[in-house]
Design brief:
single chain, alpha/beta, TIM Barrel, nine-stranded mixed beta sheet, 4 iron, 4 sulfur cluster binding
Length: 208
């Protein structure tokens, strides 16, 4: 990568684009909504159950100018920026450009990096391996906790105590443990109705 490209990447004018695709949002508050996903490479949070580990190494994904990304996204309404961990990069240029096109900007993030960009919806999904920065908790519209084992319920409550009262609370079974954890989540939500269940419905529907 030459110095000029590095400078543009540092400014968020170019981003390590892994993939972009139009599909149905399968998780959380906007389940069932048509959305255009922009997956940005780079992540050091290191969830062992991550289903897109190929996104971790940003060097595998060529820097793409944000203007091209915006042009590709422009026919759609709801744009979801995901990763990897998208906040490893400056999101201001991309999101302001998307919003200038009248598009809705959503992000899915662990919150482990400084919040940048202009967002209509922030889905915060904290991970034990690299906790969110305190600044993002009051900004989150949705808290999505991945439940891999019983101890994750306690972690979920610890995280829920930090978000605002307006933030939606979701428990989602980790896919490889869904047969074990889903009944436990159902029971937990019935006893703690401030929570809702999130499922990876796109996997049940066999869509991207």
């Amino acid at each position: 990568m030459d110095n000029k490209t590095k400078e543009l990447v540092n400014k968020g004018v170019m981003l390590p684009l892994m993939e972009e695709f139009y599909t149905i949002q399968g998780e959380g508050a906007h389940t069932g909504t048509a959305a255009y996903f922009i997956r940005v490479g780079g992540c050091d949070v290191g969830c062992h159950w991550c289903d897109v580990k190929e996104s971790w190494d940003a060097n595998l994904h060529p820097p793409t100018h944000a203007d091209i990304i915006v042009k590709n996204a422009s026919p759609y309404k709801t744009i979801v920026i995901t990763g990897g961990e998208p906040l490893m990069w400056d999101m201001q240029y991309l999101t302001s450009s998307l919003q200038n096109q009248g598009l809705q900007t959503h992000i899915e993030t662990s919150g482990a990096y400084k919040l940048s960009g202009q967002w209509d919806w922030i889905c915060l999904s904290p991970k034990k391996t690299k906790l969110p920065l305190e600044e993002i908790y009051p900004e989150a519209h949705e808290l999505k906790m991945i439940i891999h084992n019983k101890s994750d319920f306690e972690f979920a409550e610890q995280q829920a105590a930090k978000v605002s009262d307006k933030c939606g609370l979701y428990l989602q079974p980790e896919w490889s443990k869904k047969e074990i954890m889903t009944p436990m989540i159902v029971d937990y939500v019935m006893k703690n109705p401030q929570w809702k269940i999130s499922l990876q419905t796109h996997k049940y529907l066999n869509i991207p």
